[in-house]
Amino acid sequence: MSLFVATLALAPGCDSCPAQSCGPPLILRLDLPATVQLGNEVVACHLDTCATAHLLASGTPDSYADLSFSTGDSVTGWVKKRADGSLQLMVSWVVPPAQGDRYTLTVSDGAGAELASLDVTATLPSASMSSGGCPMCVTLYLGDPA
Predict the structure, then answer these.
(1) 20 to 30 A Cα–Cα from 134, which one of 15, 37, 51, 146?
(2) Residues 91, 27 contacting (CB under 8 angstroms)
(3) Whether the predicted pLDDT of 63 surpasses 90
(4) Which domains does the chain have, with CATH numbers?
(5) CB count in 10 Å sphere of residue 126
(6) If phi over 0 gives left and psi between -120 and 50 gives alpha, with beta otherwise, what is residue 40?
């Protein structure tokens, strides 16, 4: 699977840094096969902590359907319907990843058969703050491309 680093904003030489509104620190993306159906189970794990949700149908192309995970707000997810009708599952965590953290996603049907899965390890970009710059927003994308 590919590793993509999306947003990396650093303002060098900033003595009084503005308040930042950063997006999620990590987003996993998994392309779903045509065999997935409404209600299929999603299990998202960070290390040994897992949360479950059920797939929802997204309507028109380029629309999203939010998933409701069993852990509340610590894990969020959504299914995106692309212009070609294919689906992509995206899951994010509010806790920033640490170097080497393992993340898994598994989508299973009602009988428990695996339909799609992702198993990735976080590799964080290195950045130097020695220039006195402001903190940066980083979103680490793991898994399939957008």
Answers:
(1) 146
(2) yes
(3) no
(4) 2-6+27-124+136-143 (2.60.40)
(5) 5
(6) beta
